[in-house]
Design brief:
heterodimer; A: 351 residues; mainly alpha; ABC transporter involved in vitamin B12 uptake, BtuC; 13 helices; 74% helix; B: 260 residues; alpha/beta; Rossmann fold; 4-stranded antiparallel sheet; 9 helices; 29% strand
Chain lengths: 351, 260
């Protein structure tokens, strides 16, 4: 065996390393992917509907059975998938940016358990039976829980606003507490148990158009706040001291960010169930395309989130014919191997 | 006086580290704060840079209370580089330096030709032109520190606070960074305040030294006035000989041992 030592060369120097694709190209590509996923979502389902009939249903429905399937089931389902996917993708990128933690997901603020608790309580205590009603309660629960988490984090974080660590600790504690209450309630009430277990799996099926309209204003407001938050998040990524030195109002930036995460993930989770895992994965797919600039990372994450959620939903409709697999289950089945690959990466990601 | 601390009380939570401290920084000087670990020198620098709000007393920037000025306005006058800052993975040197332009941007006007010019100038001043597209993680420690200083320079302030800019650097890289500080002061007339651990480098590169112990200023003045054998004993519990630096003529501290 040769004992000659090959000198270790540093990576090629001088050459510009900015190999990232142009934003306009990426945006076009991602919009294309979302469009393909949306088209598939309208076309594919447990009941085979010929493309001509789908077109007929979209352009001039005359009340045939296929028209009803497409316009009252598939279109609202696709719309909700788009909204929830965008919301969870952006919320995940915001969450990881604010906590500087690549393993943070939007559920860390307590939205998932807050929504679950409020829904179950609505069924048990108020006898709410309509889906529309559950979702209002879920939304309220998500908002109240995350405001509570934020307040607790604030108390622990001192004058400069809540720190990522105090937020994560408060979120974990509040989530565990609410989960215990929810579990106790569903064990006592069969009807609540039934709603809860389907909600927990995570699905965008059978929601109707009114649900998409219901969550739209929350998602829209959340997206506006997210875009306003992007430049501030870029300076926060250099550490709080550097951000302050650069004239950033750190407490305000954090508050806007948490408000955006709450609105986006609260709306998505209340309407579709425990899908926060999507928010954990998506930013990792977006980051190689965007680099560390949140002004690109946030829109990319939103589009990837929508494409991934709709794509997984379509897969769920196909693999278990004539039944369906919940999109939350598909996402977890496909997402887990992806996460193993992430962990096996050469070096841990630093944000 | 560019920057002034008047009777400041500083601490974290209930723990008071500095109490009733007065200090003035004159325009166009390089001031270095020295003192043993935990004496409050970084805390003082953070307060001067409004990263830490005093619980008593006040900090004045050009005669105005710094905590009553809009933080973005302060950021156009005063640059602060905290100790050992970290950047997200994959951030390039040019990206980092560009973020120093934040105080000059608004949400509707993100980037201008003025920003472009300031970034180019900051890279040139720190000798990093040509390395702009390199990720920060691939640079040497000295280059990385110069990139951070470059970010602070792109901010376009004539007042710079540097907290231990030479930590974790070998001697050659320490000298490299301090030569840059000297150039910023000499050629561009900037006022610099830094915290340093190495007394001999502090003596060589500063106009004024401020020696602190237990939250109080024990002595302030030229390196010759401050770096004396009795003072080293008082501030650091260090028995040392002070001789003349054969290169720069500044005081050179040669330790004998720790006094008990």
């Amino acid at each position: 065996m040769s004992t000659a030592v090959t000198p270790v060369r540093p990576p090629a120097s001088g050459r510009p390393r900015s190999a990232r694709p142009r934003p306009s190209l990426v945006l076009a590509g991602l919009l294309g992917a979302v469009a393909v996923a949306a088209v598939l979502s309208v076309m594919v389902g447990a009941r085979p509907v010929p493309p001509a009939d789908v077109w007929h249903a979209l352009t001039g429905p005359t009340g045939t059975e296929n028209d009803i399937v497409v316009s009252s089931l598939r279109v609202p389902r696709t719309a909700l998938g788009l909204l929830a996917g965008v919301a969870l993708g952006v919320a995940g990128a915001l969450m990881q940016g604010h906590t500087r933690n690549p393993l943070a997901d939007p559920g860390l603020l307590g939205v998932t358990q807050g929504a679950a608790f409020a829904m179950v309580a609505a069924i048990m205590v108020f006898g709410v039976t309509s889906l529309y009603g559950y979702i209002w309660f879920g939304l309220a629960g998500a908002l109240v829980a995350s405001v509570g988490v934020f307040a607790l984090g604030m108390a622990g974080g001192g004058r400069g606003g809540p720190t990522p660590v105090t937020l994560a600790l408060a979120g974990t504690a509040v989530s565990a507490f609410l989960y215990a209450l929810t579990s106790a309630m569903v064990l006592m009430d069969e009807q609540a148990m039934d709603v809860f277990r389907f909600w927990q799996a995570g699905s965008i099926a059978g929601r109707g158009a009114d649900v998409a309209w219901q969550v739209l204003p929350f998602v829209a407001a959340g997206l506006v706040l997210a875009l306003v938050n992007a430049p501030g998040l870029n300076t926060l990524a250099l550490g709080e001291d550097v951000a302050r030195a650069l004239g950033q109002n750190v407490a305000l930036t954090r508050t806007v960010g948490v408000a955006a995460i709450t609105l986006l993930s609260g709306a998505a989770v209340a309407a579709c169930g425990a899908l926060a895992f999507l928010g954990l994965m998506v930013p990792h797919l977006a980051r190689p395309l965007s680099g560390p600039d949140h002004r690109l990372l946030l829109p990319y994450s939103g589009l990837i989130g929508a494409a991934a959620l709709l794509g997984a939903d379509v897969v769920g409709r196909v693999v278990a014919r004539p039944g369906e697999l919940e999109v939350g289950v598909v996402l977890a089945l496909l997402g887990a191997p992806f996460f193993v690959a992430l962990v096996r990466r050469r070096k841990p990601l630093r944000l | 006086m560019r920057l002034q601390a008047v009777g400041v009380r500083l601490g974290y939570g209930d723990r008071v580290i500095v109490d009733g401290l007065d200090l003035g920084i004159e325009a166009g000087t390089v001031t270095t704060i020295i003192g043993p670990n935990g004496c409050g020198k970084s805390t003082l620098l953070r307060a001067l840079g409004r990263l830490l709000k005093p619980s008593g007393g006040e900090v004045l920037l050009d005669g105005k209370r710094i905590d009553r000025m809009p933080t973005k306005e302060v950021a156009r006058i005063l640059g602060v580089l905290p100790q050992a800052p970290t950047a997200p993975e994959g951030l390039t040197v040019a990206d980092l330096v560009a973020r120093g332009r934040h105080p000059h941007q608004t949400w509707y006007r993100q980037w201008s030709s003025g920003d472009e010019a300031a970034v180019g100038e900051a890279l040139a001043m720190t000798g990093l032109d040509g390395l702009g597209e390199r990720p920060l993680d691939e640079l040497s420690g000295g280059q990385r520190q110069r990139a951070w200083i470059s970010m602070a320079l792109a901010q376009g302030t004539d007042l710079l606070l540097l907290d231990e800019p030479t930590t974790f650097l070998d001697l050659a890289h320490q000298v490299e960074v301090l030569e840059l500080v000297r150039r910023l002061h000499g050629e561009h007339g900037r006022t610099v305040v830094m915290v340093l651990h190495d007394l001999n480098l502090a003596a060589r590169y500063a106009d004024r030294l401020v020696a602190m112990r237990a939250g109080r200023v024990i002595a302030a003045g030229t390196p010759h006035e401050v770096l004396t054998e009795p003072l080293l004993a008082e501030v650091f519990d260090l028995e040392a000989k002070v001789i003349e630096d054969p290169v720069a003529g500044t005081p050179l501290v040669v330790p004998v041992g720790v006094r008990h």
